[in-house]
Design goal:
The complex is a heterodimer of chains A (547) and B (211).
Chain A lengths: L4 E4 L5 H11 L7 H9 L3 E7 L7 E8 L6 E9 L8 H15 L4 E7 L3 H9 L3 E10 L4 E9 L46 E6 L4 E8 L2 E9 L1 H5 L6 H23 L8 E7 L3 H18 L3 E5 H7 L18 E6 L4 E8 L3 E7 L5 H11 L6 H9 L16 H6 L7 H16 L6 H27 L3 E5 L6 H14 L2 E3 L3 H4 L3 H13 L23
Parallel strand pairs in A: 4-5, 8-11, 11-12, 13-16, 16-17
Antiparallel strand pairs in A: 1-2, 2-3, 3-4, 5-7, 6-7, 8-9, 9-10, 13-14, 14-15
Helix pairs in contact in A: 1-2, 3-6, 6-7, 8-16, 9-10, 9-12, 9-13, 10-13, 12-13, 13-14
Chain B lengths: L1 E5 L4 E7 L3 E8 L5 H16 L8 E5 L5 H18 L3 E4 L1 H11 L6 E6 L5 E9 L5 E10 L1 H5 L10 E3 L5 H13 L29
Parallel strand pairs in B: 1-4, 4-5, 6-9
Antiparallel strand pairs in B: 1-2, 2-3, 6-7, 7-8
Helix pairs in contact in B: 1-2, 3-5
The chains are: A alpha/beta (547), B alpha/beta (211).
Amino acid sequence: MTTWQLRRATAADVDAIMALETAIFENDAWSTEMMARDVADPGCYYLVAFAPDQPEHIVAYAGLQAAPRSPESDIQTIAVAEEARGGGLGRVLMLSLITEARKRGARETFLEVRADNPLAQHLYRSLGFEDLGVRRGYYQPDNVDAIVMRLPIPPADMAFTAAAAPVLVEPAAPTPAAPVQAEPAVAAPARELNRTDPQVHGIETSCDETGIGIVRGTTLLSNTIASSMDEHARYGGVVPEVAARAHLEEMVPAIHAAVAEAGIRLDEIDAIAVTNGPGLAGALMVGVGAAKSLSVALDVPIYAVNHLVGHVGADLLRGEDALEDAPLEYPTIALLVSGGHTSLLLVRDLVSDVELLGETIDDAAGEAFDKVARVLGLPYPGGPQIDRVAATGSPTAIRFPRGLSHQKDVAKHRYDFSFSGLKTSVARWVEQKQDAGETVPIDDVAASFREAVVDVLLTKAVAACTDLGVPRLLLGGGVIANQRLRQVARERTDAAGIALRIPPLSLCTDNGAMIAALGAQLIMAGHEPSTLDFGADSTLPVSLIQS
Amino acid sequence: MLLAIDTSAGTSVAVVDLIQGVLAERGVADTMRHAEVVGRLIRECLTEAAVPASALSGVVGGMGPGPFTGLRVGIAAARVFALGIARPLVPVVSHDAIAFGHYRTGHTGALLVVTDARRREVYWSAYSGADAASLPVRIGAPALAKPADLLDDGFVHAGLPRLDAATVSAGDLGMVAELGFAAGHPPAADDALYLRSPDVTVSTTGPKRVS
C-alpha cells in the first residue's frame, strides 16, 4: 500500500497545483490567479499530498474556505492525480478539511459536484454530505449540472467512521431517573486479546512528528505523519515546546486520518501502543496521556514501547499487497541515525533482548547536519540541504576529523560516536576562509563533511558486525534518507559480506506504524500489556523494550 | 453524564451528571505526574461511578490557563477520549471551575481567581458573581501577570476579593459544563490557554561563530 503525507499548501505549490488542476479539470479549470489568491488567503485552507520519499511531487490537493467564526464553510476544490487514486487519499483530504472547518468554528460545509461524477458523489455521501439541490448547467462550457451538498459539522471532536455519516450526540441530556447501574461498567468480560494478527494503533510523539499508525500483525494499514518541521525551520532546530504544542493540535486530526486510511473503525482496534521514551519529555507526555485515555475509552490494552526499538520493528511491516521477502533474522546489528539519536544496537530478539553497543556522546548525526547547514547558510532541516549541495562537491576535498576513531578513543568508545568536534572543525575551516577573504567552496565543504559523518557511522557499524560475528545490518532513523549514507552502506556491507536491510523511507523517519508494529510483536509473543502507570521517560534505556 | 478531566494544576478527573451531581472524583495534587496518573484516574472514576464509557454523553476538558507541559496532558486525554467514544468535547476554562466551587460553597459577589503560572508569574480571572444557573460570570479574561501587578492600584480589578487556588476540581469543571449546557451557554473555545509564547529565540544575526 502507499502512504501519503499532507501539508498546508504555500504559494510555492501553486504551479504544481495548477498542473494537476488543468490536467484534471480540462474545460473548467481555475486560473492561476484565482488559485494563488485562494492558497494565500488566511480564510482558506489548502492542503497538498505527496509520497514521503517524493516531497516535491504533489499528487493531490484540496481546499477549504472557512472564515473565522463564520458558521458556514465551503469545500472549494479537491483533486487527486490518476496515479494516486483508489487508496483513500481523497477521503483523507476531505476529513482533514472537515476537521479544519470544525476547528474554525464552522457548523456546516457545502460543496458542488458534477452531476456526471458518481464516484465523487459517493465519497461525499459516505462522509455524511446530503444533497441540497441542483444548479442547472453550472459547469460550462460542458453544460453539466452541479449537485449542491451540505454536511452538518458536529460542534466538537466527533469520530467520523469510515462508512457512516457523523451523528451529532447532544451533550449531557438530563438522565433523571435512569438507573445508572443498569449497565454496569465492569460487567462485560474483558475481550480476549487477539494474539494472532492483532490490530494495533500506534502513537508516536517523541520529537517533532505526530505519528499515528495502524497495523494488523505485520501488515501496514496506515501511517499518518503530521510534522511540525515547518514551524521549527525559523528557529534552525526542533524547539521542544513548539513540538509539544503541535502534537496536541495534530493528535485528533492524525487519528482521524489514520483510521480513515486504514478503512477501519476506531473501536475495531485490539490494542494501543505508544512511545514512552526516549525523546523530548513534554512531547512524549502528550502521546502518553492521549494513548492511556484512548485505551480506557475503547477498553483495550496498552503497550508502552521504546522508540529506538520501534525503529527496528519498522522493518517487519509489509504492505497488504507486498510480495513476501525474507523476514528479519536475529541477531542483527541496527544503526539508528536521526536528529535526536545516533545509536548502534545488537538486537538478539526484538521483543526480549536488545543491547546498546554505543551511541553518540554529544550531538546526534542529524543535529550535526543541521548545525553545519547553518554554518554554510543553508536552511533547516540540514540533511537534505547538505545532500543537495554536496552533489557537486568533492568528498575528499577537505579531510575533516572522524570522531572517536583514534586508537586511544577506540579502546574506550569502540562503538560510540561524536559529532561535536566535527561540527566545530567545519565551522573553524569556514571562518578561516571567510577571514582570509576567500570564497568558501560550499559544495566541497558539504561533501567532505557528509563523507566524514557517513564514514564514521559505517566504519563502526561494520566493525560491530565483524567483531560480533553478526552478518546483518539494519538501518533506521530519518538520516537514512541521506543518499550518500545508503550508497556507502551498500558498498561496505557488500564488501564485508553483510546483509543490509533498509526499511522504506516513510518507515525510517519517526512514525506511529513502527510503534504499532513493535506493539503487535509483543502481543504475538505473548507479552502482557503495560499497566496504566508508566510515565514518559526522556532517557529510557534501549534495553527496556516495554515499560 | 460527562467525564471531566483537568490538568491545569494537579490532575483531577470526575464523572458528573446534571441531576445526580458528582458521581465520582479522583485527584492527584502532584504537578509533575500528569501523564503517569491520568489514565488510572479516568478508569477509577468510571468504575466508581459504575458508568461505562459508552453511557457518557460528552467529555469535558479543562483548557487552563495552566503551565504548558501538564495542561496539555489533560486536554489531549479529553479530546482523544471524546474521539474514542464518538461524543463531543466540551471545553471549559479551568478558572471557571474554581470560581464555581467558591460560589457553590457560599461566596457571593465579585471574585478574583489567581493560580500559579510558575516563573514568578500568576494567572488571573475576574468574576462579578454567580448567575441564575449558579454559574460564575467572568468579567475579566484569563490573563498572565506579575504578582505585583495585581496589587497595583491601577489594576483594573484591584480590590476584588481574591482566591488563590492550587487545585482545580474536575467535579466542579464537569458541573460547569452540565449547567452551562442546560442554560444554553456556548462552550469555551477548544484552545489550550497557555497564555505564554513558547520559549524560543529567533537568531537574527545569522550563523553563530564558534569560539
